[in-house]
Records
---
Amino acid sequence: AISTAPSISTTSRLDVPSISMSPEISNDAPVRPECLPVEIYTTTSRGTKWNVVVGLYNGRPYEVFAIPYFTSLSSAELCKVRKGQYALTQGDKVLETDITSTMNDEQEVLTRMISTALRHGADITFVVEQLNKSHGDITSFSKAISRTLKKYADKERLASTVTTCKECGSENVVFEEGCHNCKDCGASGCS
């Protein structure tokens, strides 16, 4: 049987353990096609509307961009122009020549790290769970991205994540309509 745990060996020159990954784990992301179909969502972070653009590869989320709101479209194509520059198109019409140019450094880093994880096969439910653990309230940028990506996540697994109420400490917290709600004291992660 093949073990799924990393194996540790001490074959390096300095006798320092090195980890080799099992055959099931790949560090190589699929090569990005020139253009990818995207789904476009609108969300709000701290009173500002955003378009969250989710690039799909074989029907699965492959990359994420968040740009200030400019369209009500729900789908388009995202074409790589050159390294770091992506044009949003629909048919022959260019909707935005460089969607990354409108993001600030923090937004670019967050969406780049999420995209890196997705390209390398990370479970999107795990990504959403990690974003939900970030500090900040429901209006923060990371929570806004999480609200969008949860559309692709395993809903049952998200709902079963144990969460404690910040007000009373109870574990009787349920995930309803995109919010964690305490059934004991009535506190909500969305209020």
---
Amino acid sequence: KKGITMGENLSNSKVPILIKSYYNMSKIYRDLGHQEKERNNLNKALELGGKILLEIDNLEAASFYNDMAKVYKGLEKYEESLNYEQKVFEIYKEIFGEGNPRLNISFNDMADLEFELGNYDKALCLAYNALSLSEKILEPDHIYFAKVQSNLAKIFIAQGKIKDAKLSLARTILIFEDSLEPTNPSLINSY
């Protein structure tokens, strides 16, 4: 059989399979450490999918966008990464509403990207949103709570707020010490 090319008129039943194939190839390239090839396959999937992708399954679209955000972050293209992360956030907000743990992760990821862009005030606002949501939905010793605190500390340091950074790092270390094995890299890197 003849292979499918990008220029062909595809039936709707073939499009999701082809999108998923590009997506799966991107994951293989990620595992191999080939970020450019990973990004190219994700772009092909998104290009092909467009509106169809969103109509098929918003969670699948969010997964694609999240992967694109990670790829662009790895390539240190933080604005592009932030654009995709904002799409993820909007999809999660639409599907799950306020107070969902996935929004918490998005807030923290966007805070990290704003930090990388040097937008410390925006980063702090987003990190505080993540912290506020963490306080509502997670136990105080949850590992993700520590990740939010660690992100806050990084922002405080960049702003010269050393006292606040020390408090956030102290909370991070306490949670990590209670939750992780002594040889875990997250605990080791927190000291």
---
Amino acid sequence: RSIFGFIRNAEVKNLTLTNSTITAYNNAGGIVGYNYPGTIENCHVTSTVTIQGGQSNSTNSGGIVGKSEKYSSPYPAVRGCTSAATVSSQQFVGGIAASLNNGSIENCLMLATTVTGISKVGAIVGEKKSGTLTDNFHTCRDMGGVGDDNATSTDIDGQATFAYEYPAANAAIGAAVSTYATGTDYEGITV
């Protein structure tokens, strides 16, 4: 399971997870499995972490949190987190959160290249029922930030955006220059 399998009315801050494999049937997250409601802030999951659904019909695998939801105030929040984990499950798979139902994901960055599943797969969030996404970025060239029913996903300006560095001034026009090294600044998020 996750570092915290379930949080309710709690704050989880300033953690970094490395060198781990997390396997769960439902609600697998690098930091929190099920956030109902709580705040996850300034938490990081490195590229040496694998988060996976444990069975053929597994759901809700996310780089930071599996499921983040609450049906009335106060709502859950995920803020200023980064994930470079490899994340996989059958459905509801996200680089930051597998599923968001109310609450918010803000100023988060997904640096992974492998987020896989059969349905509702997104670089930031696999399934967004409701809630807000604000200033989130990802470096996954092969998918967008927010998943939908048919395993494809799209970027939505201001919510989940592909992050890249622009070519140097002397680079050829149209050249793709992408670096994701430590110290790179993505719209105010420095890794």
---
Amino acid sequence: GIVRFVQRCREEGIQPIIGARVRNTHFDGLLIAQNMRGYSQISSLISGVHLHEGFDVKREIIKKGAKNFFVITRDRDLLSEKRKGVFAEINVLRRDYMQDYSFARKRDVPPVFISPLYFLKKEDYRLHLLLRAVFHNKKLSSLAPGEAQSEFACYRDAKEIEAEYSFMKDALRNTGLIAEKSRFEFEMGAP
């Protein structure tokens, strides 16, 4: 879990960003901790999802706010609430990402650039397809859309991303802002 992740990041000299994607019938979004209190609040929301059928993460965020964590979502109802710390998810691997970006701009909701990473190099895409075919017990040729990630779900350096998505400077800037404000010392155990 989280402790091993943080330990491994420290070993590699990487500053971890602590968060989770939460999906249930009421909500789909990323929750990113800004501090230990935010991590605790996210943990409580995740526990609510697992312990209480019908737990409504969106309602909890609307009711209590997101003071110590960021919310990145495509949920138009939540985005329309214009809550502090709530951002529009602009996932460029989605075919309709420009609709999400347009919605955010029209509603004056801060957009965040998201480009999920599922494999390191573009050459790893064939291996990814093979593993997904094995997982779904299908031939490579019969994999349906959504059963494997896009070939673009690989690492791209910042310059490449900035060049390709220069028309979304606000979303790129907000991604950097969230990354910067989500850096904190994760406390493990008692001193």
